Amino acid sequence: xxxxxxxxxxxxxxxxxxxxxxxxxxxxxxxxxxxxxxxxxxxxxxxxxxxxxxxxxxxxxxxxxxxxxxxxxxxxxxxxxxxxxxxxxxxxxxxxxxxxxxxxxxxxxxxxxxxxxxxxxxxxxxxxxxxxxxxxxxxxxxxxxxxxxxxxxxxxxxxxxxxxxxxxxxxxxxxxxxxxxxxxxxxxxxxxxxxxxxxxxxxxxxxxxxxxxxxxxxxxxxxxxxxxxxxxxxxxxxxxxxxxxxxxxxxxxxxxxxxxxxxxxxxxxxxxxxxxxxxxxxxxxxxxxxxxxxxxxxxxx
Amino acid sequence: xxxxxxxxxxxxxxxxxxxxxxxxxxxxxxxxxxxxxxxxxxxxxxxxxxxxxxxxxxxxxxxxxxxxxxxxxxxxxxxxxxxxxxxxxxxxxxxxxxxxxxxxxxxxxxxxxxxxxxxxxxxxxxxxxxxxxxxxxxxxxxxxxxxxxxxxxxxxxxxxxxxxxxxxxxxxxxxxxxxxxxxxxxxxxxxxxxxxxxxxxxxxxxxxxxxxxxxxxxxxxxxxxxxxxxxxxxxxxxxxxxxxxxxxxxxxxxxxxxxxxxxxxxxxxxxxxxxxxxxxxxxxxxxxxxxxxxxxxxxxx
Lengths: 301, 301
Prior knowledge:
Two copies of one chain form a homodimer.
Chain A: E1 3-4, H1 8-17, E2 20-23, E3 30-31, E4 34-35, H2 39-48, E5 52-57, H3 64-74, E6 83-85, H4 86-97, E7 105-109, H5 112-120, E8 124-127, E9 150-155, H6 163-175, E10 180-183, E11 189-192, E12 195-198, H7 200-211, E13 216-217, H8 224-232, E14 240-244, H9 247-256, E15 260-264, H10 271-275, E16 286-288, H11 296-300
Parallel strand pairs in A: 1-16, 2-5, 2-14, 5-6, 7-8, 7-9, 9-10, 10-13, 14-15, 15-16
Antiparallel strand pairs in A: 3-4, 11-12
């Protein structure tokens, strides 16, 4: 069972126990474009106590660089090298795990941020934001030439999703032998400023269904993202905690990586899901209402 | 095990045993825009022997009326009242099974043929081919007004699929209490003239994934389509046979309805799938290479 923390001593104890603090962003730091109360103060407390701060997001529509501007706009201090996104993880997976040969290409279903991360890793791609593929004009195989150099399809949230992109990706995945199928993340929905909308997992769903095959996912809860963090940040898992709002991504991700987990209730997960009659099988170590709750340690001092 | 038929006597015996002949179309009568050899002659033999002929298609992009023009173009005799499509089955399901009140509406992901069938059943709909919903412009909930009268989402093959349609459908299915989720059919792919493309099942897949919920399907193998046929055609299941090229739609549909099943190998299913080391668990009663094989009964006479 999760421990519900509420007293000043309990917040202090957590601050003492962990040196590295991983944060999910949407639902923890902000909701859509609204900063969650107390976040800036708590991150400031952590930094003043020399904690290592890392931001781990499944948002694949933005590169780490452009994601940083979101922090800036909301007045949250962050550095590009503290930010890890699922688009970056997908790019690193292609360059370092698959080691895609330089002569090969990736077909992208996704947006500019994913393309930027691929470009930074030196990966050649087609599709994506190319105007030819962002169309509602009819698609016919008679006009399509299969590029034999496409060796992977990578799929992230793409609000320009259309039948041409899906059909091309399907051709590569069925006709180019060994073509890799990668999804930045499996989130079924994402919290926009005004409510839930279909997420990246829903964008790769047509291909999963047509192929009868699941993609390799690089975002949370997959370990690929933690491997990316590990490659850049030295941390001791026993003294590392992840703060998230989603049980099946953030909390599971922490558990898969041997980290301590702290659930906040400012995002997707409701109180009901952890204390109700049918609680989730994914049980975080700790629960608190909001990240801002940690401010209590300074009020007392 | 299926019986492989090959002799004139065996074809004659089948013709004697069944009064009503149901046919899948794509992969049985034609492939894309190419008529399969011998089809016109065999249908002619059936009609001359006073067999009842019924065409049962999962194609939901065309109404029965517009599907008839396909028969005409390929020189295959057919009458509108012999054609049953999954779009028609969806419309009948809404009007007769759900009995959608006249004040309620359907949000459509699909094309003109589906709209035509809904209109013919007196069902009010939004979405579909409406230019407002056929766009790649960004979708934001801030500009969206939930129509409280939308009581069902019906989803067929839609080559104009886009994020606006998916997002609106997701809103209705999550925010309008009791909103029905209906798919014309679950086909993962469909055979275009130049090869396989993602099918109607792939178009509803993002909603299935985002909702964590499956739609009610009205096409084969669901019984809804057979209920539509039964409502118009009197037939004795014991003397009725269905000819199809797909095990998990046509043959399963026949088995679910207590009909005899005949697989042809001119479409999706390969010889390997029925006689190979890992045969499908769906076993048709009979197998023949092509519908045209039945011509042998006239060559002899």
